[in-house]
Structure formats: C-alpha cells, structure tokens
Amino acid sequence: MTIRLKKHLSLVSVLMVMFHANHLKAQTPQSRSQDTIDTQVVNIVKPYTPKISDAFKLKQTPRMGVSDTPQKSVKYTIFSIPVASTFTPAKGTSVRLDKLKKEKLFQNYASLGYGNYGTILGNLHLNHRLGRGERIGGYIEHHSSQGGIDGLQFEDGFSNSSAQINYVKSLKAFVWNTDAAFQRQAVNWYGLPFETTLALDPKQVYSTIELGSNVQFTKGVLRSGDIHLRRFSDAYDSQEYHLTGETNFQFDVLDSPINSSIKVDYLKGSFAKNYNGLDTQNYGNIQISVAPSYQYVQDDLTVLVGFKAYYLMDSEQNKNDFYIYPNVEASYAVVNSIVVAYAGIKGDLYQNTYYDFAQINPFVSPTLDIRPSSTPYKVFVGTKGKLSQSIGYDVKGSFAREQNKALFRTHSIQNFSAPNNYNQGNSFGVVYDDVDVINISGALEIDMGQKLNVRLKGDLYKYTSDAEPTAWNLPEFEASLFLDYQLSDKLSMAANLFYWGSRQDTTNFEGLFIPEPITPNVTLDAFLDANFQVSYEITNQFGAFVKVNNIANNSYNRWNHYPVQGFQILGGVSYKFDF
Known about the structure:
Elements: H1 3-26, H2 29-34, E1 108-115, E2 119-131, E3 134-145, E4 158-170, E5 174-188, E6 203-217, E7 222-234, E8 239-253, E9 256-271, E10 281-290, E11 293-298, E12 301-314, E13 319-335, E14 339-350, H3 354-360, E15 373-386, E16 391-410, E17 428-447, E18 452-465, E19 477-486, E20 491-500, E21 503-505, E22 522-524, E23 527-537, E24 542-549, E25 557-559, E26 562-563, E27 568-577
Antiparallel strand pairs: 1-2, 1-27, 2-3, 3-4, 4-5, 5-6, 6-7, 7-8, 8-9, 9-10, 9-11, 10-12, 11-12, 12-13, 13-14, 14-15, 15-16, 16-17, 17-18, 18-19, 19-20, 20-23, 21-22, 23-24, 24-27, 25-26
C-alpha cells in the first residue's frame, strides 16, 4: 500500500469516528430501548488491485550513519628463557652431479658368426646421410647351414641370402621412402617317409625381387600412398607377380576423424605343371576394396564403426564376386588405463600367394592351388591394462568363421605315376576348407626400461572343419616367451621359448585305380624349442656373441617327415662403424 493511499484512509477513518460520536449523542434512552435491530460486526474484505497510477517515485535520499570507533592498542611482550642445546648446524655444501659421458652412436653395423652343422651367419647394415632430411641405407644378410641331421637319405642344408637398398627424403609437407630388395632361398625336400633307390635331386631355389615406394603426408586430407611390386619365382619355372597400391584419407566430422582407404590388389601366377605332372596351372585375380571408418571418443569410451567392401574379379575362373565385412570395435577404460574392456566384430578378404605359403612352409610343391580366403566375421571380447607401472596384460576370447582357409597337408606318394623330386611324399600341398575357430589368448609383458623386458603369450584353439577330417597341421595350443636382460653396460642376454602342441597329418599312396582315402593317420608330437644368446661389448665398437639353439637337443618334427637340427651353437664377432 502506498503512502498516499494510507493518508486517504486515515482521513476517512477520522471522519467516520466523528460522525458516529455525534450520532450517539442525538439518540435518547427511550429511542434506544425501542430499537429492535441488534448490533453486529460486518468485516468487508476486498482484494487489493494496484494500478499504474498508484505508483510514485520516492524523493527522499536515505542517510547512512558511519560510526568511528578507535582501535584499541595491544602491546606484546616476550618472556625468553634460555634452553641448553647441543645442536650445532653444519656448514652447507653443494652436491656435485657426475656428468655422464656422451655415448657415441654409430650408423653402421656388421657381424659374422660360425657354428656347428657348418652354419654361417652374417649381417651388414649401412646408413648414410646425404643431406638435410635425406638418407640412403641398405643391408646384406646371409644364413646358411651345410646340414647333417642323422638318418636322412638326402641333403638337408639350406641357405637364405637377401639384400636391400633404401632411400628416404623428408620434407616439411611429406616423407618419401623407396626401396628395392632381392632374396634367394635354397632348401631341400629331404623328408622322405621311407627309403628309396630313386636318384632324386631334392633342391628347390626361391628368388624374390621387390620394388616399393610410399609417401606420408603431414597435412591435408590425403595421408599416405603406397605401391609395391613383387616377382617371385622358383627353380621349376613357377612365376608370380603381385602388385598392390593403397591410398589413405582422413578428415574430421564433429571433431572426430573419419578414415578411409582405397586399395587395388593384382595377382597373376603360373606353375609349369600340376602335381600329376600334366597341364600348366594358372591363377590370378584383381581385388578392389574400400574401407571407411568413423571413430567416436567420449571420455573413457572409444568406438570405431566401419566396414570393408571388396570387388573380386577372378581372371582364371571367369567369375566376379562382391564381399562386405564389418569393422566395429569399442573400448571402455573402466579404471583409467589399468583396466580397459574391449569388444568388436571384424572380417576381411585375404589374398593368398605362392610367396606367402613358401615363407610359412618352404617344403611346399610347385603345384599349389592358389585362391583367396574369406573371414565373414570374427567376434572378440577381452580386457587389457596394467597390473603395475611396468606389467601389462591382455586377455581375449574370439570366435571366427573362416571360409576357404588354407591348410598344409602332405602330398600323397605317387607310386604309379612318373616319380619326380617332390612327389614321393616329401612335399606339401594346400587344401581349403570352411573352419570355425574358437580362440582364447593371453599375453603378459614386463617392461623395466632397458634393464629387463619379458613377453609371454599363449593361445588355445578349437577347430571345427566342414569337409576335411581335421584342421591339418594346426596345433590346439601354442605359447612363446621372449626375454631380454641387460646384466651390465657391456653384458646382455636374450632368451626365447616356443611351444607347439600336437598336430595331425597324413601319409597315403596314390593307388592304382582308386586313390586311397586320406585320413589323419600321423600325429606330430608337441615340442619345446629353447634358444639363448649372450652378447658382450669389448669396446664401444667391437663385440662378441654366442648363440645356442635347441638347447634341449630335441629331434622333433616341425613338419611331417622333417626332423630339425639338434643342439646348435654359434659364436661370432660384431663391429660398429661410421664412414
């Protein structure tokens, strides 16, 4: 209620009191007795409805009183009492830091070693700076053995020689790398299942020529480009050409990167004969693929969503196929980097080549069936993280469907056909089957800087094949251990262990009219292979080393009818230098 309204109400109240007083004086006692109307109190309540005209501006200026209270003065006095003490402060001295001698790093390295079985091991690695951001390098490696495994009819020696030259140009906008390489591998098909009087020459020689170039861009949408050409051949007129080209892109959408790659894969090859020694065997295809993916990161959650699409043109089978595979993975940091849970589903199309098969199993025959393999899906879930500052772990389980999975199987013994150097049960072929694979794996790594590094890994497999009676030559369990330990500034050691579980293979004959049924009638025993190496730096340039392989002297069979060398020891020297 405003002040003006209050004044009006006060004036009205005074006038009503005066009027009521005069009215009481005018009534006589007789008239009051004759009045029949009882007195009652009537309260009139009306809601207040303010109007704009009721508002007014307050013209008075408020006053503020400030009190000035003087501060009281306070006086402090110290009542000191002497206390006896035997403490005598020592004079401060500065701590001297020992200046470490700067270690000289050399750009080039060479080593040479010799061991039993006539083993020779040599390496030469070169690296030279041409100018600012420009380098040229290369290496030459050789590993050979004269053999000498007991109980064999044929030579079991081998050799592996390779050389490569590399050129790197680094600029502000990109880094360009190009290289050329050559490799020569010689092996013998010495794994005969029985004694023979045939005069066979079991030697096989593989030759590889490779040319490649790639560029990495530091800015822009285009991130990298790569092209690679490989020619692979052998001593039996087999030839294979493999050309790949790939380009990678990346751009951001809503502060999250989208990656994509486009790849072209061309394969063309031929074998002079098939396993029966009749017709020429050709193979080849072209694959064109695109693989976009989007990565979303929110706090501790990371999600990758994408797919891979392939268009396959088989030039020999005259058929075209289209494949699409999922590429989805998610991870969540449950406890920072200590516990990280992850899961996903992925798939891919794999280009199998004669070169890849010969690197896995050098005793294959030059009559292989080459075709791509497909994994429509592989579902996995796991957890990884750190048990401490220096101990990390990774545990994973997966289920995969693999179509046209390549399996190595011993060839049948051609006892009625014309014999040759590899058709007496001493070589391997490749068969394909659709296989379901269940895998449980675990890995543990201890990393204590340059002092100690330990890596332990184990895999448990369960294979279910559709057509073949078993998953040929695949173990149900395998494990590995790698250890590097720096005992002192000059002395270091390294050790590794490999364990492979038992595997299934077969030995069968050609048959006169009807081929014998192929059954898994050979079981390859599980084996443990332990290796050890000690290195000592005599000076900052010269060093010596000793390698011991197959410490337990186990004469196990890595492949059917192929025993390995027993206890092996090799010693050598190394030299580091600059031009």
